[in-house]
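To: structure subgroup
Subject: Chain for Friday's discussion

All,

I'm putting the inputs and outputs inline so they're searchable in the archive.
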Amino acid sequence: MMKRIKFLLIILSSMLTLTACSKPDSTEHWIDNPTAKEIKLKIDDKELTIPAKSGINYKIEYGKHTLSYNNDSVNFFVKPLFSKSLKNIVQPKITGFINPTQSNYIFYKIVYIDDSSSVATDKFIEDIQRNTEYKTQVIFDGELQEVEVPFTVTNELFIERDKYPWEFFLGEKVPDIMEQDKVATVKGKIFREDEFYEYMKDDVDFENHISLPSNPKKFNQLSKIVIPAIDLDNINCPEGRADVEKKIATWNHVLTLTGSEFAKEYDDMTSMNNRVATSEISNKCYQDYQNESYTTQVEKITDIYNQNHNLNFFITD
């Protein structure tokens, strides 16, 4: 007796397997220009024009690139975001953007209170307010001062939502009322500087009394991601030394890749399996040699992965 084979299911299963194994090779990022004039910049050999008080979405391949603007240039990497644990959470489309002019952007915390609740006492509101404040430098009547306010200022070249967790992006209207099932909810908004002044004009006289300091840097002064000096001779555990040497070689190899190859190798390098293997070697080295020389040295490398895990960009030489 012959059995009917469900070729469609086999074909679909194969397609799903291929899809699951494939890696994207690029991602789209917003490039913003809050100034009053259009600007021109280059990413690698591609010249881009960014309109005044606006921006563009630009598709960038994973891996290393060069950004050139205003007779200055910097090398940077675009990497995939790894948020598998957050895959069921609705994320904003833009998780990081490029600020080539190093203009000021303001991250402002907006508090929504259900004032009909008996919990919303004056003390409760004061506590919420205190927990939203930053120590921020402002220029008040010409004098630089540090004040506690519910906003902070950044002029970083790459502005990341992981550092400034906004729900409302540039130009997006902030609602006066928020549907919520809590007594208090805090939402983040990222503003261009003039957009922030307009939003606050009924409460604060930025035009005549208050301004925000601007401190752009030359690109070669920006912080770079590099592997710090590793003291291999100080690692007494042979397995540990071999692992650190391998991690350095892997890192240097990954930085030569682009597109989907970069995405795959970077994913493997920073995977949970890799972290578990590092932990197991650390335990073995400590048990066999009763010191933490391996752990001390390997953390110099793994800290780079961990600190940049949820970032879209990093700067290199």
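Points worth raising on Friday:
The CA atoms of residues 108 and 204 lie 14 Å apart.
The longest strand covers residues 105-113.

D.
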